[in-house]
Amino acid sequence: MDVEVRVPALKDLQLNGRLSFVSPIVDPATRTVEVRMDVPNPDGRLKPDELASMTFTGRSDHKLTVPNAAVVREENKDNIFVQIGPQRYILREVTLGEEENDRRVVTSGVTLAERIVTEGAFHLNNQRKQAAIKGEK
Q1: Which of 69, 122, 125, 128 measures 20 to 30 Å from 22, CA to CA?
Q2: HSE on the CB side for 100, CA within 13 Å?
Q3: 65-134 domain in CATH 3.10.129.10?
Q4: Could you read off the pLDDT of 56-113 as tens digits, one per residue?
């Protein structure tokens, strides 16, 4: 994400760049989050742990995510149940990306327009297996 940074100790020096790291931890004492922007510092004016204000100027990425509870692991593959009709579902293989806050990014296999099972996928998968054993569809 593009950012604009002001460093008060350097007469409100303004830098522009891209965010390269956001800590997943909030410091409870200062209520701050450590972030990093890679920027050239040939004259050494910028110092470690120097306070700065950062404004996010870029747009965040919007990605399709699903809760971890929706993912069914089978035969070393990730799957999700997709609704194909009233009370009818199919197990579809998906490709998943990074995980954050108990959710996984879906990189392929399902679209935003499709309805998926977000809770109870484990039980639905057990019913599917039992039906297969009985020879039902």
Answers
A1: 69
A2: 11
A3: no
A4: 887 767 788 999 999 999 999 999 999 999 989 999 999 999 888 789 999 999 998 9
What architecture (CATH level 2) is domain 2-56? Beta Barrel (2.40)
In this structure, is the dihedral angle defined by the CA atoms of residues 69, 73, 78 and 81, taken in order, positive or negative?
negative
* Rounded Cα–Cα distance for residues 128 and 34 (Å): 46
* Model pTM score: 0.57
Q: In what order do the strands lie in the sheet with 2-7?
A: 32-37, 13-27, 2-7, 53-56
Contacts of 58 (CB under 8 A, 6+ apart): 1, 2, 3, 18, 19
Alpha carbons 134 and 5: distance in angstroms, whole number? 64
Tokens of 106: 């879906």
Write down the domain spans for the chain.
Answer: 2-56, 65-134
